[in-house]
Give the backbone structure.
Amino acid sequence: MIENNVVDSELTNEILVSILVPVYGVESYIERCAHSLFQQTFTDIEYIFVNDCTKDNSISIITNVLSEYTNRIKNTRIINHIINKGVSEARQTALQAAKGKFILFVDSDDYIELNMVELLYQKAVDTNADMVLCSFYNEYSTKKTTEHIVKPFRNKIELMQNTYAFPSFWNKLFKRELLTKFKISFPNEINYGEDLTMTPRLIYYSSIVAFVEKPLYHYIHYNNQSFTSSFSDNNVEQSLQVIQYLDRFFANKVEYKNSILYLKAIRKAKILRSGKTGNQYITLFPEIKKHLNELNLDIKTKIILQLSEYKTPLLLKLFVKLLLIRSRI
């Protein structure tokens, strides 16, 4: 899997945290990202960047930034894929190469607070947690920034349902042992929503999950080249594969039945809201119909799903259009 190391010096004996960064087409963002990583207040970090055959100057920018942080060079690796494999396999490559006790994924167009690793690691140590979640900033092209505050939940099922909206790895520090012990890996055929195949399983296997309410991660919404920036037909199909994947995993775990029904409900509503109102989408997941009132769905989602039961695309389109207009007001 590790085809070619551009930077591959001897790593220190004890690595506490591995920061893993897939890289493709981010030359406008990677400099800020790299600075935020190499300036971390925490010392015992290894950095693994996976070059998934990027066609721009992203890698040279990383090496230039790295040259400013000589103390980080010995623990930094850049791994080159021979062919483009997609973000899922890029992340898997990084995971297979990682040696840290804990793992932190960072998307290469985002950036992090300079004490993020220190605060998350300390929380993990203090609580003996398998996973630590933190709040984050949403940053938009309008220069608007909002905070998404993550607070503790009563149980893992409640936490899992909450993460369906933001299943990304980037605000989560977790023990590498979870992946090795329970053989958790990325499905290599999925590049949209691949994090959703992983996060619920990590939560399921975690004995203790801890929280840092302070926002520490900056999630960029204005990279139009991002794989997740559009909801194409292919992305819809991959998102349905993700649900099938989780459906199989939780099939014999009765206590999670409603959680998966909830996921199906909000994903179906998202697809319909995107304007995809063909019969194959209107008739998705018929099993959720009799559970709509049990799933604690917001009113807009309920209306969309109830309209879909009438199998009337015109009404759906009118309602979705109304929601879009109201969101712009």
Strands lie at 5-8, 17-23, 45-51, 76-80, 102-105, 111-112, 131-139, 145-148, 172-175, 209-220.
